[in-house]
Model the fold of this input.
Amino acid sequence: MLTLGVDLAAANMRTAMAAVEWLPDRAIVRDLVLDVSDARIVEASEHADKVGLDCPLGWPEPFVALVQAHRFGHVTDTDADGAQWRRHLAYRLTDEVVREETSIIPLSVAADRIAHAAFRCVGLLAMLAAAGHNVDRCGGGRIVEVYPAAALCRWGLAYRGYKGRGQNVQHADLVTALREAAPWLELGAFEGLCRRSHDAFDSVIAALNARAAAIGKAVQPSDEQRTVARVEGWIALPTGPLSDLIDGAEGMSGGD
Done:
């Protein structure tokens, strides 16, 4: 099995992509690149069994409905001063599930800068669909939405403070912690890049998260949640430890 992890930024710069090959007793990082274009992601996806995209695949349904109603002047029932009303506009169903499961509050695709990456993702998903990939926003096809911070949390690794100006955890140390927690993961010649770039590191985590989704070791939407998740997207939150990724192949599920 080959999984692809993409840490998607708004532009090619800061977009990272990792390819991980899965063997019975180990996983090998076969490629790790920065400044990746949409075309390169689509081409690499042709060879992958599962592609983990670190980016929201859709917007909250109430937010979309509000924008549509506002466009035509049909907004009649709002609670602009209500925090709960605004929260429903800002966060997707899957964001709330991640919050309940991990206490991590995902960035809002409706009210935060991550929307710029999501704008790009719309075009990327269209390109992937045109290339023949099953773009099921629930993750049932080749493409699945992942969230490295939540995956790291589930795997007992530091998930805050390793990127940005307020960095208080060196992501180079996080690479060391990952290698100790997953001795079966071979970074090879790409270890230095992982230690230098948190974008590269996140793309490797996205590829590991994609493996969890591919083998049935990630949270899936219930039948009731699936209708909304098919529109808003669904984060494939791992359900168990890192060792599941090697030991749990019996739960393997398909892609396209």
